[in-house]
Amino acid sequence: MPVLEQPSDVLRQFCHGDLDAFETLFHQDRTEVYPWIVGIVRDPAIAEDLTIEIFWRIYRRTSASTPPEASERGRDASPPTLPSIT
Fold first, then answer.
1. Is the separation of the CB atoms in 66 and 15 below 8 Å?
2. What is the pTM of this model?
3. pLDDT tens digits, the chain, 86 residues: what are they?
4. 27 near 19, Cβ under 8 Å?
5. Are 59 and 23 a contacting pair, CB within 8 Å?
6. Are 35 and 43 within 8 A, CB to CB?
């Protein structure tokens, strides 16, 4: 996978089915998501499970909603943001 300079590049690649980009997003954003969830549920083990569940849902929703023609559009499509997916 090439070095990605912009966060939007990672999102765009993820939206086109790049699993490496999804892994990059997970590792980048879980450090923000996990503490937020711990603050809500007050249990680190549950927060870890919920963090993984959130990213799993993002993956499923994005892969299910990506129309076949998205790959034909290339990099023209604007990537969604994390809050808009969840």
1. yes
2. 0.60
3. 455 456 678 888 888 878 888 888 888 888 999 999 999 999 999 999 999 999 888 888 877 665 555 444 444 445 555 555 55
4. no
5. no
6. no
